[in-house]
Design brief:
With 221 residues, the chain is an all-alpha fold. The protein has 9 helices and 2 strands. Strands 1-2 form a two-stranded antiparallel ribbon. Helix 1 crosses helix 4.
Length: 221
């Protein structure tokens, strides 16, 4: 009898684990493109965007995600709310993603000049230090999701190559430039080599008259 109980518990465990992983991977497929698009427009890693959304919404299964389209645990008034809550409500999930970026740029603006778009660890720890969540293990949990589902593979993705998924049609070409914030030690030549673009193209895209860069300067690449 005990062996049967253990057997059924093991079956339930593996079934629930497989279901959770399937839900998570479906979430990634649904929202990976909008995360990449926002990364290229604003400079925050796509892995961080998706990792936080998955953590805060249970990969889209939480109550506020289902009924209020809130995937980032953002609190406040405004927007449609199917379920009364201290958390914001949104017309669509895309609106929530956009509001998350606005929240980051308003409250965590210093991170955009401190960390590169591929420094997901720095971003996660910086967001936790900034008070995004009260849990002391919040950053570790987000980083765990990022590593488990290899979300860092999205951080080097050019949005021009991503054409399917939420917010995009199959025949729509996305041409948003990569946004980069100048760090200490950056030069136009180094950036040109890193992003496989010429110095003259960088200067033309950003209306630069000299090769001198300022820390925190916003460049389109």
């Amino acid at each position: 009898m005990i062996k049967k109980i253990i057997y059924f518990l093991v079956i339930i465990f593996y079934t629930s684990t497989a279901t959770a992983q399937s839900t998570a991977r479906e979430y990634i497929e649904n929202y990976r493109n909008i995360a990449v698009k926002l990364m290229n427009e604003h400079g925050i890693p796509a892995s961080i965007i998706l990792g936080i959304a998955m953590h805060e919404s249970g990969a889209g299964t939480s109550r506020i995600a289902k009924y209020n389209n809130n995937h980032f645990g953002l609190k406040g008034k405004g927007g449609p709310k199917t379920v009364p809550s201290a958390y914001k409500g949104y017309e669509s999930v895309q609106d929530c993603y956009s509001d998350f970026i606005d929240h980051m740029e308003n409250r965590f603006s210093g991170l955009f000049t401190r960390y590169h778009a591929n420094d997901y660890r720095g971003w996660a720890k910086g967001i936790q230090r900034g008070g995004y969540a009260s849990s002391k293990t919040w950053a570790s949990q987000v980083l765990g999701i990022i590593r488990k589902y290899n979300l860092t593979s999205l951080d080097s993705t050019n949005a021009k190559k991503e054409k399917s998924g939420v917010g995009f049609s199959e025949d729509t070409e996305i041409s948003n430039p990569i946004v980069y914030f100048v760090k200490k030690g950056d030069t136009l030549l180094a950036l040109a080599r890193r992003f496989e673009i010429s110095v003259s193209e960088i200067k033309e895209k950003n209306d630069l008259s000299s090769n001198i860069l300022q820390i925190g300067q916003k460049l389109h690449l």
